[in-house]
């Protein structure tokens, strides 16, 4: 994740955050990544980035997602050098994908019930800076 995030920093304008299995891989064990889902806050630079990701790759495929609104970035935080969505957003995205991801969603939910992880925010993690929500 760190290598992908560092590569994105020079390519993406605006906010971005990892979600789904990519975000869960940082808090849940045994996540096998065949695809990395990334929310992009701006379409600018996304086309250029999409062109770069279409070629042959040795790692997992990147799926660039332009969210319906900026709410997916609410409570984003840094996990090391990787910006990830809130645990609640990761849970919702994992649950929506189903299959193997549903098991990871259950694991993230179980951590929350045990009190070791908050679905909304982990107070020990630094929130992602520079993400401004523009309301109509």
Short description:
With 136 residues, the chain is α+β, with helices and mostly antiparallel strands. The chain has helices at residues 2-9, 20-24, 46-53, 87-97, 100-114, and strands at residues 16-19, 35-40, 61-65, 77-79, 82-84. The protein has one domain (2-114): Beta Polymerase, domain 2 (2-Layer Sandwich), CATH 3.30.460.
Describe this structure in words.
With 136 residues, the chain is of the alpha+beta class. It has a single domain, classed as Beta Polymerase, domain 2. Helix content is 35%, strand content 15%. It is built from five helices and five strands. The strands form two sheets. The protein has a three-stranded mixed beta sheet. A two-stranded antiparallel ribbon has the order 4-5. β4 and β5 form a beta hairpin. The longest helix has 15 residues, at 100-114. Mean pLDDT is 76; it is low at 119-123 and 129-136.
Shape: globular
Number of helices: 5
Query: Within the largest sheet, what's the order of strands?
Result: 1-2-3
Class per helix and strand makeup: alpha+beta
Number of domains: 1
Q: Residue share in helices?
A: 25-40%
- Give the C-alpha Rg: 14 Å
Beta-strand portion reads: 15-25%
């Amino acid at each position: 994740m760190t290598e992908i995030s560092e590569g994105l920093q020079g390519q993406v304008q605006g906010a971005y955050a990892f979600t789904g299995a990519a975000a869960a891989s940082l808090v849940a064990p045994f996540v096998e990544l065949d695809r990395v889902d990334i929310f992009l806050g701006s379409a600018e630079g996304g086309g250029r980035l999409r062109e770069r990701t279409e070629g042959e790759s040795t790692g997992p495929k990147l799926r660039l997602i332009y969210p319906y609104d900026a709410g997916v970035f609410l409570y984003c935080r840094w996990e090391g050098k990787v910006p990830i969505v809130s645990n609640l957003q990761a849970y919702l995205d994992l649950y929506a994908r189903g299959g193997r991801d549903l098991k990871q969603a259950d694991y993230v939910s179980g951590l929350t019930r045990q009190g070791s992880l908050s679905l909304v925010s982990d107070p020990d993690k630094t929130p992602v800076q520079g993400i401004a929500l523009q309301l109509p």
